[in-house]
Amino acid sequence: MAMGETAFEERIESVSEVLPSGDAERLGDLYTRDAELLPPDGDFVAGVPSVVSYWQDVAEAGVASVDIEARDVERDDELAMRTGEAWMKDTAGEVLDHVKFVEVWRPEDGTWRIHRDVWNGMGEE
């Protein structure tokens, strides 16, 4: 079942707001049931409960906002990929981390969700 471009765009636009929110329900809804995070210098983070816990820990560590700049988005009816850069900031707007990322999205239960999420630091600026 094809889902419209607008629905997909709304989902990818919500990531910046949802990731630093610490809201378990919204975080869980963003990812597939068998989602995996591949954070830098760490193990795989697999499944919604672990993914939610990871992002809640990030929010508790002081990340208050995430600014995302997409470089490329490719999509068909079954899979989508987004690459880009993100800046994780504290409440004062100071950059805590600047990363490059790849997200793989797929539809699940009629909604686009992140299936794989990998990022690495951009180094010194």
Automatic annotation (TrEMBL):
InterPro entries: DUF4440 (IPR027843), NTF2-like_dom_sf (IPR032710). SUPFAM superfamilies: NTF2-like. Pfam families: DUF4440. Residues 21-114 form the DUF4440 domain. This is DUF4440 domain-containing protein. It comes from Salinirubellus salinus.
